[in-house]
Amino acid sequence: MSTPPTRRALLGLYASTLRAARTFRSYNFRNYFMQRTRDNFRTMLVESDPTKVSHAYEQAVSELMVLRRSAVVNQIYGGLPLCIEEESHMPQRTQVADTHI
Q1: CB 26 within 8 A of CB 78
Q2: Pfam families, per this entry (predicted)?
Q3: Largest alpha-carbon pair distance within the chain?
Q4: Which of 34, 53, 57, 63 could staple 5 via S-S, CB 3.0–4.6 A?
Q5: For 15-69, how does the pLDDT look when each residue is reduced to its tens digit (9 = 90+)?
Q6: Is 64 helix (H, G, I), strand (E, B) or coil?
Q7: Nearest by Cα to 60 from 41, 33, 43, 35
Q8: Cα(24)–Cα(81) distance, rounded to whole angstroms?
Q9: Are 24 and 74 in contact (CB under 8 A)?
């Protein structure tokens, strides 16, 4: 039986996983993986069984490696930004002067 990870190790892995999730270029993937990370680590922090915590930690480490590789691929082939992401770049409506005589 392996020793359970410390709270500091869990929080470090959490931060690394969130950092990797933020590197996704695609809005939907980015938000999905950030929410999934939050949910997974919330359940991991409240778990009291050391064996389950160790198993969840090891699984999260392997998922972090997959997430990092997937983020690189998504950065290469991410596609165009969604309209939700382009809010600051949207053209402002200008009022046209009334030219009717």
Answers
A1: yes
A2: Complex1_LYR
A3: 88
A4: 57
A5: 999 999 999 998 899 999 999 999 999 999 898 899 999 999 999 999 999 999 9
A6: helix
A7: 41
A8: 11
A9: yes
Angstrom distance (rounded) from CA 58 to CA 5:
9
| DSSP code, position 86 | T
Residue 94, number of CB atoms within 10 A of its CB = 6
C-alpha closest to that of 69 among 26, 23, 31: 23
Round to whole Å and give the CA distance between 91 and 75: 26
Written as six digits, the tokens of 48 are 């009291």
pLDDT digits 0-9 by tens, 73-101: 998 887 777 787 766 544 555 555 555 55
Tokens 């392997």, located at residue? 62
pLDDT of residue 83: 81
The total of other beta-carbon atoms located within 10 Å of residue 50's CB is 13
